[in-house]
Amino acid sequence: MSTSLRFLAAVLILFLVSQHATGQPIMRIPLKTKTLWSTDDVALTNDNDNTYFGQIMVGTPGQPFNVLFDTGSFDLWVPSLKWPKPRSKKYNSSKSSTFKRDGRKVEIRYGAGSLKGFISNETVEVGGLRIKQQPFIEATEAPGRRIYERPWDGIFGLSGLSKSSITGTRPIWRAMMEQGVVKKKVFSIWLRRYGDSGKEGGEIVFGGTDPAHFTGAHTYVAAEGPHNMFKISSFFVGKIDTKVCSKGCNAIVDSGSTYIRGPSDLIEKINKQIGVAADCSNYDKLTEVISFTIAAKTFTLTPRDYMEKRNGKCKSVFAASTTDLWQLGTPFIRAFHTVWDHQTPGTVKLGFAKSK
Ligand SMILES: *[C@@H]1O[C@H](CO)[C@@H](O)[C@H](O)[C@H]1NC(C)=O
Ligand SMILES: *[C@@H]1O[C@H](CO)[C@@H](O)[C@H](O)[C@H]1NC(C)=O
Known about the structure:
There is one protein chain. The chain is mainly beta. It has 2 domains: about 25-180, Acid Proteases (Cathepsin D, subunit A, domain 1), CATH 2.40.70.10; about 210-355, Acid Proteases (Cathepsin D, subunit A, domain 1), CATH 2.40.70. Helices cover about 15% and strands about 45% of the residues. The chain has helices at about 5-20, 170-180, 265-275, 305, 330-335; strands at about 25-35, 50-60, 65-70, 75-80, 100-110, 115-125, 130-140, 155, 185-190, 200-205, 215-225, 230, 235, 240, 250-255, 260-265, 290-295, 295-300, 305-310, 315, 320, 325-330, 335-340, 350-355. The strands form 4 sheets. A 6-stranded mixed beta barrel has the order 2-3-8-4-7-6. The protein has a 5-stranded mixed sheet with strand order 12-15-22-16-21. The two termini are about 35 Å apart. Bound molecules: 2-acetamido-2-deoxy-beta-D-glucopyranose (2 copies). The site of one 2-acetamido-2-deoxy-beta-D-glucopyranose has 4 residues, from loops. This is Peptidase A1 domain-containing protein. One of its GO terms (molecular function) is aspartic-type endopeptidase activity. Pfam families: Asp.
C-alpha cells in the first residue's frame, strides 16, 4: 500500500470507529439569520440585531417550521391554525397521524411579548432526530403583537429541568436525552460573528460540538437550576475591576436575547465608559474592552463584539435588566462558542471557547 492509501485506510477506520463509538453522528442544524433593523414597525426599532433560527418538523408527515432555539425558555410552540398572522406557517393537527389531543390552555411571557395557546402532543423532528409524544404549544395568539413581527414561526425552548415551570410538561431537550435520540448529552451553539458577511447565520449541534467553530479548549463552569445559572467572579471595564462581581454575579446564557443585560446602575456606567456615539462618529476610535472572569478564565469582549452598526446608527449591546441576573445573549455567543454539557447525571456544565 502506498503511504497515502495507508493513511486513507487509517482515516477510514478511525471514522468508522468513531461512528460506532458514538452510535449516532452528531446532528448539525444550520441557523439562518435575519436583521430586524430596517423594519418600519416603530415598536421594533430597539431590536436592531440579527435574530437566528433553524428548521424543525412537527407531526407525521412533518410540517416544517422555523424556530428560534432559545436557551432562556422551557417550552416549544408553533402557530396553530387559529394564529392570526397572515402568511405564517400554521400547524394543522388533522393532517398528522401522530397528533394526540391534550388541550390544556397555557400562557407564556417572554421579554419580547406574551403568548397564548393550548398543549398538544406530537412527533417532532430536529435534523433527522425524532422525538415522540412531545408536548408542545399550539399558539393561538400573542397579545401585544410583537411576536407576530418576528421572522421565525415559533420558539424551541432549551432550558428547564424535568418539567417546564410554565406548562408542567417535559422540555424537548430533556426528552431528547431521555429517549436516547442523542447518545452524547451535549448541545452547542455557534453564531457567526457580527458584521461577518454570508448567509450562514450559525449552527446548533445536538449530541456534540463542531470543532470547525471554536479554537482552543472550552472552559467549563458548573451551572444549576432550570435556567442553567452560573457565576461570573469578576467584571472589568478596561483594566479596572468594577468589584461588582467580587462576591459572584449570577448569569445565564440566553440565545433568545439580542442583548447582554445586567444590573441597571452598572450597565449605565459601562455604556458611559465605552461611549458609543449614536451617529457612529467615534466608531473606529473605540478601544475599551469589557471582561468577565468565569471559572478563573478571562473572557474579553472588544468593541467589535459589543457594538452594533447599522444604517449609519450605532449602539452598545449592553442593556439594563430589571433584576440582578446577567443575561448573556447572542453578542456573547458570537464571541464565545457555548456548550451545554449534561453528561454527568444531575449536573450541568457550560463551556466557553473562542468562536471561529
Ligand atoms: C387541515 O387539514 C385538513 C385535512 O387535510 C384539511 O381538510 C383542512 O382544510 C386543513 N385546514 C386548513 C385551515 O388548512
Ligand atoms: C403526551 O406526552 C406525555 C409525555 O410524553 C405523556 O405523558 C402524555 O400522556 C401524553 N398525552 C397524551 C394525551 O397522549
